[in-house]
Amino acid sequence: MDKLIVEGGYKLKGTVNISGSKNASLPILAAALLTDEPVRISRVPDVSDTNYMIQILSQLGASVERSSGTVRIDSPDGISSSASYEQVRKMRASICLLGPMMARMKRCTLPLPGGCVIGDRPVDLHVRAIQALGARVRIKSGNLVMEAPNGLVGATVDMRGDNGPTVLGTDNLMMAAVLARGTTVIESAAREPEVVDLANFLNKMGAQIEGAGSRTITIHGVEQLHGCEHTVIPDRIEAGTFMVAGALISEGVTINRICRDHVQAVADMLSECGHTVRFSSNGASVYVAPGVQPKGGKITTSPYPGFPTDMQAQMTALFSVTPGISVVRDTIFPQRFMHCSELKRMGANIKMDNGTAVITGTERLSGAPVMASDLRASAALVLAALAAEGVTEIHRLYHIDRGYEMLDDKLMGLGAHVSRVPDLKAVEES
Ligand code: EPU
Questions:
Q1: pLDDT digits (tens, 9 = 90+) for 194-215
Q2: Are 118 and 240 members of one domain?
Q3: CB-count burial class (<10 Å; 0-12, 13-18, 19+) for 327
Q4: Which residues line ligand 1 at a C-beta cut-off of 6 Å?
């Protein structure tokens, strides 16, 4: 286990390249199971979540080769329809194997994902979707056991839950429907760029999907899919995290390999708070620098193209040192505020009230030993540490490694004083 030591107060400067999207890669890797021909996926970030997915695919019987960001997957006939708890429990996103496994094998046993630190994360919408296509679903010994002996059949399914549309639920239904008989219409579909990237990948495999990126997606089932090559979209959350770093403590940073539309909500919020945000003319790069008179802001997370829940923790870190009062409300994961108690240990003034954080900016945070609790909470702690006075030690770094490729190297490239060292105390405790 490693910890990150951050010496705060050094202004970032320079250029950083954004990796491929973790959240687009995961369902795309799973979708490789939909064909018995090889697929080649480029710009898959080397983070532990994509590695977990690759391990699960291998355990199911696929042959997987990975070299410098490109993953080649070959899933010949005879793939297992049963995933092991040992693998699946490491990553909630393994639920996105449900759609491809059902489409390819017409049956599957998938351990139910357990609890999650960012809140109760039910899978009822995934189950409802697969049932709507004619599968029988039961829970046995902690597993979802699903069967559709006569194959899946297209249907119209509304995917809206109490907290809005579901991203991986939409992905699962799309992947299940591509090989179903007849037409499937997904109402209240998630519109996130990662859903569009998956639809593009599936269409390259021969699927017939229309409307991805809108509220209604139509899938005409086809007999079979074939191999293809695909490059994953840039990671908009990694890009957003570096944009916040640029606004927080820099002499200006340029963030390359991005897609302007995908980070527009974060860019708008940073501009509204008085920071400099300038896109290149092709929208593939953005320059961010701290404003002369920055002010706080008000964020309510919402599905794309609204402000992403995956960026609220990082903005909370920025607001902690921004003059005035800021308000952050998460409507998607109302309990996703674990980072606040750690930020408070660094001197942040944050009051929590029923899914809302009210932040009164302080002039300076001070370095402290802190504990990462989940991926984006860890990113918020790294950002806070960059701006804090003194040294911050961030424990449980494995949370960051789930979704940020070479974060410490990229920060060092921008002039940050960070180092990764073995967390001997954590080893003793474990
Ligand atoms: N929900 C249900 N029932 C379901 C599924 C979801 O009620 O069956 C609820 C959730 O509890 C939540 C809302 O619907 O309140 C939206 O959750 P969603 O299903 O969209 O989340 P997800 O697909 O499991 C993906 C990302 C998350 C990101 C969310 C929201 C991946 C691998 N994960 O999760 O990313 O926060 O969408 O945008 O794509 C992260 O990268 O740090 C991360 C957590």
A1: 999 999 999 999 999 999 999 9
A2: no
A3: middle
A4: 23, 26, 93, 121-126, 161-164, 166-169, 190, 194, 309-310, 332-333, 375-376, 403
